[in-house]
Amino acid sequence: MTNTANIAKGLEGVLFTESKLTFINGSEGILTHLGIPIQEWAENSTFEELSLALLEARLPTAEELARFDADLKANRAVPQSLLDVIQAMPRGVHPMQALRTAVSYLGLLDAQAEETTEEARRAISVRMIAQFATVIAAINRAQEGQEIVAPRMDLTHAGNFLYMLTGKEPTQEQARLFDIALVLHADHGMNASTFTAIATASTLSDMYSCITSAIGALKGPLHGGANEAVMDMLDEIGTPEKAAEYIGGKLDRKEKVMGVGHRVYKYFDPRSRVLRDYAEHVANKEGKSQYYQILETIERVVVERIGSKGIYPNVDFYSGTVYSDLGIKKEYFTPIFALARISGWCASVIEYTRDNRLLRPDARYIGETDQHYVPLQER
User: Fold this and answer.
1) Which residue has the higher pLDDT, 293 or 261?
2) Are 53 and 34 in contact (CB under 8 A)?
3) Is 316 assigned a catalytic role?
4) Catalytic residue among 316, 362, 370, 372
5) Signal peptide span per the entry (predicted)?
6) What are the residues whose beta carbons fall under 8 Å from the beta carbon of 185, sequence distance 6 or more?
7) Considering the domain 226-325, what is its CATH architecture?
8) Is the pLDDT of residue 1 over 60?
């Protein structure tokens, strides 16, 4: 019998579960975690606190947060055998390929990896949240032919990552700026990578397989990587004076402008409003205002020309310049995305598997019917 239900291309508008973690109202530009606006998380909280809040689906106490922070610090180091694997990876390998391989290898080394109870998933989540920073920094250092920097226990999660990445202790302002960027990217509802992690989890597969699946989904340029494309666009434009003509030409030709438009948001992505202010501050302070001036012009032209169609800058529009000013190379922007989103991935897997049901969608068959096998020699 033919399935006559309407097809939701890309599963748009399809509800398959309930969640207490993240709410998005795209038409009004609203994003909340646990009912709290993202702007308040960015202004008042830390990546560590938001990670724990997502895992527990509630605000933690000071004592709980201190214990969680201590657990993260205690789990920052990774086994030497993994560092050997990272150092043996071919030069020029895609950083997301390297991350996917490293996380899968971590699963081989974790004695608890095959356990799928909520308690085990949470313990593994803490280790992965801590170790993603160490792994990504190690991949970058190894690919640059530099000595891998061991983690420090006296720095914040964000500050420690920047230290392991560059070998230099960041300023408090740099660490806080990066912390805010992590907060803004920690979770975003049922995006492609989170859905992929949940789909894998619904089979009762192990946590490392769930997160490896999510990394594979994030690697795709329609999900991760847009902020890298924004930086390529800025380099192509070159100077602020050329920005308006460049973007106007793209819009005239109906070409995509990177960092503009979002599947969910039909107004300004609230995360982009937070990052815009910080991007402006950093640009003015560091004397790197050219990128920001180009972005300002692009935003003005886009809003004037196509804002009425619900197309506005998204979080990727400004995040690349922030990362660039922190000394992060653009090929590592997507791994940085994973560094933040690991919290949302883990929290969503834990939440979904509390009332698990195997995901098994259907597809409408449009092929031929009433056919019979034709012997190979008669074809």
Assistant:
1) 293
2) yes
3) yes
4) 316
5) none
6) 271, 315, 319, 336, 337, 340, 341
7) Orthogonal Bundle (1.10)
8) no
Would you state the structure tokens that stand for residue 362, as one six-digit string? 């259907």
- Angle in degrees, CA 325, 331, 332, rounded to 5: 70
Q: Is 262 a catalytic residue?
A: yes
Q: Which residue has the higher pLDDT, 225 or 332?
A: 332
Q: Could you tell me the two tokens for 29?
A: 């530009």
Per the model's pLDDT, the better-predicted residue between 320 and 352 turns out to be 352
pLDDT in tens, 295-312: 889 999 988 888 888 888
Pick 22-220+332-353's CATH classification: 1.10.3720.10, 1.10.580.10, 1.20.120.530, 1.10.3430.10. Answer: 1.10.580.10
What are the domain boundaries of the chain? 22-220+332-353, 226-325
Read off the pLDDT of residues 177-194 as tens digits, 9 standing for 90 and up. 999 999 999 999 999 999
130: tokens are 């801590």
Q: Which of 157, 262, 269, 325 is catalytic?
A: 262
Query: Residue 328 belongs to what H/E stretch?
Result: none
Handedness of CA 218, 94, 338, 257 (dihedral sign): negative
Mean pLDDT for the chain overall: 92
